[in-house]
Amino acid sequence: MPSLISSLATALLLVSGICAIPQGPSGAESGIVSAVSAASVSTAGVAVSQATTASPSTSNAASGISACNNSPLLCDRAYNNVTHMGAHDSSFLRDASTSDSLAGNQYFNATVALDAGIRLLQAQVHDVNGTLQLCHTSCSLLDAGPLQDWLAKIKFWMDNNPNEVVTILLVNSDNKLVSDYAAVFEGSGISTYGYQLSNGSSASNTWPTLGDMITSNKRLVTFIASIDYSPTYPYLLSEFDHVFETAYNVLSLSGFNCTLDRPKGQGSAGDAISAGLMPLMNHFADSLLLQGVQIPDETDIDITNSPDTSTTGNLGLHADTCVKQWGVKPTFILVDFFDHGPAIDTADRLNGITATGRKSVSGESKGNTSGAGENHSPMGMNVALIAFVVFALAMV
Questions:
Q1: Would you call 343 helix, strand, or coil by DSSP?
Q2: What is the pTM of this model?
Q3: Radius of gyration of the chain measured on its C-alpha atoms
Q4: Which residues does UniProt assign to the signal peptide (predicted)?
Q5: Active-site entry in 84, 88, 242, 340
Q6: Does the annotation count 242 as an active-site position?
Q7: Is residue 122 helix, strand or coil?
């Protein structure tokens, strides 16, 4: 009987699309949203100024740009002196399109996230018969479709939101060449927005302001893990040439810290900051479903994503702790289920802004927000299979 139960449990995991490997940024975009006014945020006790400089620029206040990334205060601020709030595994949804797959990390898709103020989109990419595909650990678990289709939808959003700077971070799961990624970026048309550093292979303390990126219309920054930078495709940057990360395999709310986890070549967070690398603070927790099987921790998400600074696990507390340890604020933050908290409040506080022009998903049904052809998950048998497993366990 134990072997039968084990087999049933294994089948259940496959059907449910559960992640059996810890996921992090290493290694149909429509939805119902409603307008919302932004609340005031406090900057008390938080360093909102980074020890960085901007490329030479004219004041964007005089250039006709009314707001950059939802605030006029950010137009004259360097890209690396802004905290960009990000959606971890942004293409993998827990919604009607996946029958609420336990593997899903977000309730709402990428363009809904962008409407809500998220400006960093992270995803995992796999090679499926020569096609770069968005898959969560395995395409048999959760498949969000071709990378090129997803990029095309983000481009459409950027076409219609000309005052926004967006960052994309991709996990190169199958170690594909930078030229393979360039083909889909160019095929989607989004490469036209690609920002190019003067020396893309080296970290830099000097980035342009958001206003300058918007004025030049080079307002997409793309990092890809595990690629070799190529001057032929200068808008595709190797992540760990420019970014360092905190740990992502966190299984308890007390597990968040500010210690450098990657790249291993940097001795500490302080060393990485001195070298010009930008901090990425991973702030999402997993829970252990079965031995060796982890899923995104949905149960504690209101604690995890809270902007408060009083409770262990709070996003606000983690951010403040890192600011104190690093002497600078995180340039990037990644969270699961971004709408809870809402997580964006912590970024607003770090940036010292009261945001305008956003849309809110608060109170809306997550529904089927993925669009046709995305987030395919073999979930139809879930109810029957769960009942069968429960019956088998009861017979032990």
A1: coil
A2: 0.84
A3: 21
A4: 1-20
A5: 88
A6: no
A7: strand
Q: What is the mean pLDDT of residues 220-234?
A: 97
The total number of structural domains in the chain stands at 2
Residue 376 annotated as catalytic: no
The CATH number assigned to the domain holding 252 equals: 3.20.20.190
Domain span at residue 266?
Answer: 22-377
Contact between 29 and 371 under an 8 Å Cβ cutoff? The reply is yes
Rounded Cα distance between 35 and 89, Å, is 25
Give the CA count within 13 Å in the CB-facing half-sphere of 219.
Answer: 24
Residues 368 and 387 in one domain: no
pLDDT tens by residue, 237-293: 999 999 999 999 899 999 999 999 999 999 999 999 999 999 999 999 999 888 778
Residue whose token pair is 């009861």: 394
For residue 3, the tally of other CB atoms under 10 A from its CB is 7
pLDDT of residue 8: 44
Task: Tell me, yes or no, whether 307 and 194 share the same domain.
Answer: yes
Q: What is the DSSP string of 23-91?
A: --S--------EE-PPPP---TT-----S-EEPS---GGGTT---BTTBGGGTTSBGGGS-EEEETTTT
Judge if 286 and 307 occupy the same domain. yes
91 close to 371: Cβ distance less than 8 angstroms? no
Which of 84, 126, 136, 242 is catalytic? The answer is 136
CA distance 278 to 76: 19
Q: Within the chain, how many helices (H) and strands (E) appear?
A: 10, 16
Give the model's pLDDT for residue 363. 55
Residues 173 and 293 in one domain: yes
Q: Are residues 185 and 106 in the same domain?
A: yes
Among the listed residues 273, 53, 24, 62, the one whose alpha carbon sits nearest the alpha carbon of residue 170: 24
Same domain, 281 and 204: yes
Give residue 366's pLDDT.
63
Predicted confidence (pLDDT) per residue in 312-323, tens digit: 999 999 999 999
Among 74-83, 137-146, 375-384, name the most confident range.
74-83
Exposure string for 103-126, b = 16+ CB within 10 A, e = fewer: bbbbbbbbbbbbbbbbbbbbbbbb
Q: What is the arithmetic mean of pLDDT over 64-80?
A: 96
- Contact present, 53 and 330 (Cβ < 8 Å): no
- pLDDT single digits (tens) 167-204: 999 999 999 999 999 999 999 999 999 999 999 999 99
User: Residue 35: which of 339, 338, 357, 347 has the closest Cα?
Assistant: 357
